[in-house]
Specification:
There is one protein chain. By secondary structure, the protein is an alpha+beta fold. It is 57% helix and 9% strand. It contains eight helices and four strands. α1 packs parallel to α3, α4 runs antiparallel to α5 and α4 runs parallel beside α6. The longest helix has 29 residues. The radius of gyration is 17 Å and the shape is globular. Bound molecules: glutathione.
């Protein structure tokens, strides 16, 4: 059975959604980041980058959420379109998530959640401006009427949704100007596997 190392974060939830979509059996190991469990030697031996998510699939250890999704699709199928055009589209938005959506929202959140005296207003401005620009990119893409980022539902939606849901929960007003993105979020949120995956770890 897959051992799934995670925490209650958007990056972890990409993988729990994927596991739920595929209907795979898995055992969840909650890594308590606030207690620095990711620094324990046994964790570092598996992942020198000391971050969740990570899976141990019968001694096949994979970390980095995007790599885990690609591994699961390689092994089980079901997370990527079958045709070259659809796969290219899915890869494009998966990498866009990993390079732009996650880093900007993650850094914005860590600035906003820091004690007032430690906040850097210039950095908040940079990450907020860039996050809104990135939302605009996704909103424009979805404006052509496609239901999901790569046309059909895929790992691209799975990677992007938990981050946008966290941003929406923190500040729904960010989404006022992005109607296509809001409608896409509702479509993704309606999937039973997404609802189950977003509740992991409980
Ligand atoms: N690019 C990585 C990001 C992983 C990541 O940033 N994980 C965070 C939680 S969301 C973490 O484990 N942080 C612990 C630390 O940095 O010590 C991925 O997509 O897997």
């Amino acid at each position: 059975m897959i051992k799934f190392y995670t925490a209650a974060t958007p990056n972890g939830r990409k993988v729990s959604i994927a596991l739920e979509e595929l209907g795979l059996d898995y055992e969840t190991v909650w890594v308590h980041l606030d207690q620095e469990e990711q620094f324990k030697p046994e964790f570092l031996a598996m992942n020198p980058n000391r971050k969740i998510p990570m899976i141990d699939d019968d001694d096949e250890i994979v970390w980095e959420s995007g790599a885990i999704l690609l591994y699961l699709d390689d092994k089980h199928g079901g997370l990527l379109p079958g045709d070259a055009h659809g796969r290219a589209q899915a890869f494009q938005y998966m990498f866009f998530q990993a390079a732009h959506v996650g880093p900007n929202l993650g850094r914005l959140a860590s600035q906003i959640n820091a004690p007032e005296a430690e906040q850097n207003k210039g950095m908040i401005d940079i990450f907020l401006t860039e996050s809104l620009r990135v939302f605009g990119v996704l909103d424009t893409v979805l404006g052509d009427g496609r239901e999901f980022l790569a046309g059909t539902y895929s790992a691209a939606d799975i990677m992007t949704y938990p981050w946008l849901k966290a941003a929406h929960d923190a500040q729904a007003a960010f989404f006022t100007d992005f109607g296509n993105l809001s409608a896409w979020m509702d479509r993704v949120a309606a999937r039973p596997a997404v609802q189950k995956g977003m509740a992991v770890p409980e």
